[in-house]
Amino acid sequence: xxxxxxxxxxxxxxxxxxxxxxxxxxxxxxxxxxxxxxxxxxxxxxxxxxxxxxxxxxxxxxxxxxxxxxxxxxxxxxxxxxxxxxxxxxxxxxxxxxxxxxxxxxxxxxxxxxxxxxxxxxxxxxxxxxxxxxxxxxxxxx
Length: 142
Prior knowledge:
Blueprint: H1 3-13, H2 22-34, H3 36-56, H4 62-78, H5 92-115, H6 129-138
Helix pairs in contact: 1-3, 2-3
């Protein structure tokens, strides 16, 4: 194992060699026996591990924790529910009503547009079998 690989493993897996891949442990131990730079890199990794473990588990007193929970409970008891809540913030059973109303109104608008002649569709007759055969053999004769 080279010193560069050792430093990369120390940065990735930390100072505890039990966390390293099995294949790298034996080479790391032999490099630690011979190289002072490897021992320094492992010491730096141990310092980094110590700082990270201290940062990930902050010490909070029980008194401070109780104060936080008390303030949360106080805020929840003082919470006021507004009289008007927009439909998009309402609970799920009421969200379907605006959508159903919108779809129904669009259906009515579509029906009225078609019945008043605002939307027209070209009425065509399907081609007969002889017409299809002639067009496919001779090409379009129009």
